[in-house]
Amino acid sequence: MERVDYTGLRDDELMARLEHRDLAAFEALYDRYSDLVYSVALRVVADSHVAQDVTQDVFLRVWRRPEQFDVNRGKFVTWLMSVTRNKSIDERRSQGRRLRHESLPTTSEEEDVLPSGNDRDDPALATVLSDERAAVRKALEVLPAEQKLAIQLAYFGGLTQQEIANTLGQPLGTVKTRIRLGMQKMRGALEERRGKDRNFS
Amino acid sequence: MTMDCEHVRDNIDAWALGALDGEEARALEAHIEQHDDCAALAESARDTAASIALAVPLQSANSALKARVLASAAVLSDIHHRRNWRTWSAAAAACVAAVAIVLISWSGYLHARVNSITDDNAQVSADATSESNSFATVRTELVQANTTNVGLVSSQDAVIDILSRPDIARVPLTATTSAPASNGRYIWSQTGGLGALVATNLPRLADGTSYCMWMIFDNAWVYGGRFKVDDTGNGRLIVRNVSAAAAQGRFHGFAVTAEPDTAPEQEHNGPTMLQALVD
Fold it and tell me: Which of B13, B59, B81 shows the shortest C-beta gap to A183?
């Protein structure tokens, strides 16, 4: 039988193998993205045990229902991050307001998504996402703090615009504007970088 | 709640971040289902929002978690395989059972139908036989009736013929000791060789025996015909083509005797029941 180098397969190729219950392909996907999934979950739920449970649930969903990923609707990592974020938010909400209050992101630097000094780059992840991650970090770096915070509270905190306004003591319209402008800037920065990548390649 | 395209554009990023409340999110999603341009914006916004996750500081998921996830996947795969096998086995068994039930039911239905058709055929055959017998009876009766009608018409014609003859004669017949209560009349035309006998109160004869009409000559008794009587003892006979040939001698009269049906027409051995002597 032909030996398959799973680490060399693209995400969509591995997902296609999951349709045929290829456990080795699943392991390759896990190795590639488990740290990212766990880190996002941890960022949302702020509890390592819960984050591990979320990670397990996310990957078992990938294993059980690989057909839910539609390669025509975008990249696998985008879909995986949406699944992870939504599952984490659900878990966060299910634990009630106590957890939310304890882990609610603040405006402090510790709650920023930007890498801290002890961050590390996963070797497997680095091979496929290091440029993408760097671009996102750079896009977030240039955002005004209030826009970045509003986006973080929505994305990682699971708060609605009204809840963000209440949390920050700002008018709802202000929060809406911050979110809209921050996301537009991010999108512009990411598209600019992707355009450069295409020209470079 | 509905949203126009401008409202959707203003809120698409908040939606992608999950920051709209439930009603707003549903309204926006309903809108982008109907507007391709807005759907494209939604896809882009969702892509941007998902990319935010990439900025988180990476934390390592421990190896124990990996072992747990892979073991769970393997178990799920086995369960999935078994469930599929059980599902297919159950489905196959259900299909076989269903087919068997259908075949048995169909076989039973066909068997019942065959029995029913056989019964129907037997009934139709019996009815046909009955009808055939009925038709045969009717046909026989019609033939008999036709024969009777022909006979009646013939008798009527004969009587009319007799009555129209100029030498018509009426001869009463008297009883003998063999049938003392009986009597009769004979209407005849000697030139036409025709006669009509009407007899009453004659005794009923045994089966195989009937009355015979005779014309008595010197040298012979000439046979005129054979008849039976009804329940009241009445009988009729048309006598045709009787000639009084010279060789037979002088004519003396008429007689009615009882003779076996099998007796030759020239023999008259039975008792005389009625008679009429004319000379």
Answer: B13
Q: Is the pLDDT of residue B270 over 90?
A: no
From residue A112, give the alpha-carbon distance in Å to each of A2, B6, B189: 46, 32, 154
Whether residue A29 contacts residue A62, with contact meaning beta carbons closer than 8 Å, is answered with yes
Chain A residues within 8 A of B67 when measuring between CB atoms: none
- By Cβ distance, the residue of A84, A154, A184 closest to B19 is A154
Residues with Cβ within 8 Å of residue A152, at least 6 apart in sequence: A105, A111, A112, A113, B52
SS3 B208: coil
Please give the residue that has the higher pLDDT: either B115 or B262. B262
| List of chain B residues whose C-beta atoms are within 8 Å of the C-beta of residue A84 | 53
- Would you give the distance in Å from CA B39 to the centre of its chain? 74
- Band of pLDDT at residue B97, cut at 50, 70 and 90: low
- The whole-angstrom separation of Cα B258 and Cα B211 is 5
Mean pLDDT along residues B117-143: 74
At B145-161, the pLDDT tens digits run 666 666 666 666 777 77
Residues in chain B within 8 Å Cβ distance of A60: 69, 72-73, 76
Helices (H), ranges, chain B: 5-16, 22-34, 36-52, 63-163
Please name the amino acid found at residue A3. Answer: R
Other CB atoms closer than 10 Å to residue A169's CB: what's the count? 6
CA pair distance B110, B108, nearest whole angstrom: 5
Higher pLDDT, A166 or B145: A166
| C-beta of residue A150 within 8 angstroms of C-beta of residue A182 | yes
